[in-house]
Amino acid sequence: MFRIGMIAAVAMLTAGFQSIPAGAQLPPELIPLTEDVGAASSFDYMALKASGADLTALSGAVFRRTMAEGGPRRCLTEAEAVFQENLAAAAEAADQVAFDDDRAAASEAWGKWLLFVEGMQNGQVATEEPFKWASDRYARAAAETNPRARELEYRTAGDQLHRYAFTGGAQVWGEVSPAANARLMNRLGRSTCITDKDNTEWLKADVAANGWFTRSATGERASSSAWLMAQHADNDRDFQRHVLALMEPLVEQGEVSPNNYGYLFDRIAVAENRPQRYGTQGECKSPGRWEPNALEDPERVDALRAEAEIYGTLAEYQARMHAHCPG
After folding, report:
1. What is the distance, to the nearest Å, from the Cα of residue 231 to the centroid of all Cα atoms in its chain?
2. Hey, which residues does 67 pair with through a beta bridge?
3. Domain for residue 287, yes or no?
4. Which of 6, 58, 210, 321 could bridge across to 290 with cysteines, CB 3.0–4.6 Å?
């Protein structure tokens, strides 16, 4: 019943969807699909595509719903995630048969991924990159005698395990079609966001009770792991600023890495649309070309990087980052 009704709705709304600008908000007629998982699951996406709708623009509009005015992005709700995933998959699928096949393939692949994550959390060993780092970190967490550092290491391993999946996931689930891959990337995006949010809440509570992770109290590795978790706390800029303020005097005392401080300083500055100091943050401008965001003092950036013990000159760093901008 709902599917038939939505097909009719697609026909009525076609004219409006054909010319959705890239920065537009989601049309009101589609908002119910972001609020009901069943509706988002049963909607006829290929009919919407056949109507001439710009599914890529609609997908972007779903993400824009997650951005508070002047604030950080929240995670997609389950209904939003289902809707966005199907839009992305339909944009890639050739026809309804391919759309259905890709959905089944993505579900099978996702099941493999969840089993892999569970295995890693319970001591499964990965010997090849990109997952070896996370595997080693889980092993270190299991051997850690400090309960605070153990929980931190365990959470950091999960943080990185999610991020490695964006480039290495095919090692776990095998080769899939572009449409199935689009589904998997969207599921990973939401899972990573939820993981980051949970980690941020844990770190906030821990730091409020115990102070920052210092070299003398918990060791170098735990101190850097805490920084990494704060670096990924983009859903809570106030907390990131709080961490930066905690770290600043500790850098002078030799209790935290100046490198960690520099990266977090730049991340916050760029998020607040201010020039960064150390040139650690940037974006791909074209295939094989990475450019740093605006700098406070371009003439002194290399000296500032050296003071913060950040890898190489900006030119050397940029050359290394080019590899992260695939063709």
Report:
1. 12
2. 73
3. no
4. 321
What is the full DSSP assignment across 1-15?
-HHHHHHHHHHHHHH
In a domain, 68, yes or no: yes
Residue 48 in any domain: the answer is: yes
Beta-strand runs (E) in the chain = 282-286, 289-292
pLDDT value at 228 more than 90: yes
**How many domains does one find in the chain?**
1
Task: State the CB neighbour count (10 A cutoff) for residue 141.
Answer: 20
Residues sharing a CB contact under 8 Å with residue 144, sequence separation 6 or more, in sequence order: 150, 153
Residues 6+ positions from 266 with CB-CB distance below 8 Å: 276, 277, 278, 279, 280, 281, 293
CA angle 106, 30, 95 (to 5 degrees): 40
Q: How far apart are CA 32 and CA 247, in angstroms?
A: 45
Read off the pLDDT of residues 50-63 as tens digits, 9 standing for 90 and up: 999 999 999 988 98
The single residue listed with the structure tokens 């054909």 is 18
Kindly state whether residue 29 falls inside one of the protein's structural domains. yes
Determine the 3-state secondary structure of 282 from DSSP: strand
**Beta strand 282-286 pairing with 289-292:** antiparallel
The pLDDT of residue 63:
86
| Dihedral-angle region of residue 77 (phi above 0 means left; psi in -120 to 50 means alpha; beta otherwise) | beta
